[in-house]
Amino acid sequence: MSQLTGFTPWPEQDAQRYRELGYWTGETLGAMLQRKAGEHPDRIAIVCGKRRWSYAELDAKADQLAAGFARLGIGAQDRVVVQLPNVAEFFSVCFGLFRLGALPVFALPAHRRAEISHFCRFADAKAYVIADLDGGFDYRTLAREVQAEVPTLRHVVVAGEAAEFTALADLHDTPIELAGPSAGGVAFLQLSGGSTGLPKLIPRTHDDYLYSVRASAEICGLDQDAVYLCALPVAHNFPLSSPGTLGVLHAGGRIVLARRPSPDEVFPLIGTEGVTITALVPPLAMVWLDSARQRRPELKTLKLLQVGGAKFGAEVACRVLPELGCRLQQVFGMAEGLVNYTRPEDSDELLHHTQGRAISPHDEVRVVDDEDRDLPDGELGHLLTRGPYTIRGYYLADEHNARAFTTDGYYRTGDLVRRLPSGHLTVEGRAKDQINRGGDKVAAEEVENHLLAHPAVHDAALVAMPDAYLGERSCAFIVTRGDPLRPVELMRFLRERGVAQYKIPDRIEFVTEFPKTGVGKVNKRALRERIAELIAATD
Ligand code: AMP
Ligand code: DBH
């Protein structure tokens, strides 16, 4: 079958090598689930509130939904934006689409009109799948706004009360014969945290993703007894694949979905469901640690806590084992591919002070200077990588790809790291214009463009400011056109534009001009230093 337009394949020589190595097996995600359901149909695959779906039930629902989506006119390689909270339907929908060869585009529950409209338009989506309500927010209202902005979007499918839209419950048709996709083709489009004006989409193939999932499950020692608590947003690459929910399905284990990651909700779940492994971002790990001190919850079954998405400092990392009674694993990954893990055999020094080493012996990891010259171990430089599960290009992004990848296919991660002789990496900073808000990535340019749309704003620069809890928050420096403007007005303006809450600047500072670099660009380093000093002085 022809490849998706806008997808950059691996050079055939590399693809062949990955197949010969047994990394790319030719199995699709849909087939993987079918095989598991055949091996142990009655084992529980997913726990979602009071509902428990066996592997056979999940498998059957996926086949039914593949037929139902086909009835709506959705076919191979059609894009479907999926924005669901942590509910079991996420899996029946995604596996249904995988079997059809249609491509889920993973949105986060926090996304709003600006982001969702962009995904629908950019990916030319035929359908948008939502839940009715979550966390007090009505996604049907959002869907109406998106439909008004993107008339090419044909269907809105709702898990729950559908109102005028299509109910997911009504899409469980009698299964039909399907050709199914090929494993070398794109399976879905994952989101990038980005650093440019508009969020980029990441095409991942069945072959490459399943390799990273299988290898991750092995590194984490997952087996049929694994009970994985999914507390982070289910569509995020970390809980989806590192080894995440897909790793657990591959191992024949059980997924327990938590609607919220707060200790109130998850501590009892860990006890009652016998959770053995979970994944958190650093701020949540800190909340769990502090809460565990006070409440002394029953967490006996929990063996492994994975922490990643943003840097987990050594001072906190060393508290995990004594205070939660489970092992820590640091995870440094990216939706573009490369994932690093600390390993069970690592010393405490490595465990607490590094963000792990790459999954695969065939991950090619380079640390280079500003001129792309390789640096010796121990020196700080730019992380470049290519390998069996790292993309060679963003979806439909030729111009950006020329900058984001080297001519020989290395992805420029934008991360500043040091490598130890063991291959372990420490993440020490970032060259990309992004704020990492406790694991939520904010592309500076995207937010600046929204700010610049305000008639009173002449210029805008978004930078990171230090924060004890999130690691970083965002601060917008604004030069106005002269008219007085209050921070609350600007924040309201962004909300009305439909920007996700986590991208709204945490602080706004008005200035008369920006400091400039030698070549006349906005000197963001100087702005970061200015806000850091201001915060230090007022603390
Ligand atoms: P994305 O490309 O949006 O999937 O985000 C991946 C980025 O998150 C990486 O390139 C890093 O900048 C950051 N990141 C992920 N895990 C860690 C970690 N453990 N420590 C520091 N930064 C991390
Ligand atoms: O931050 C990330 O994107 C991330 C973190 C840990 C990731 O994509 C992953 C593991 O797979």
From TrEMBL:
GO terms for molecular function: ligase activity. The keyword Ligase applies. Residues 33-395 form the AMP-dependent synthetase/ligase domain. Residues 446-521 form the AMP-binding enzyme C-terminal domain. Keywords: Ligase. Pathway: Siderophore biosynthesis. It comes from the Bacteria. PANTHER family: LONG-CHAIN-FATTY-ACID--COA LIGASE (PTHR43767), NONRIBOSOMAL PEPTIDE SYNTHASE PES1 (EUROFUNG)-RELATED (PTHR43767:SF1). This is 2,3-dihydroxybenzoate-AMP ligase. It comes from Chitinimonas prasina.
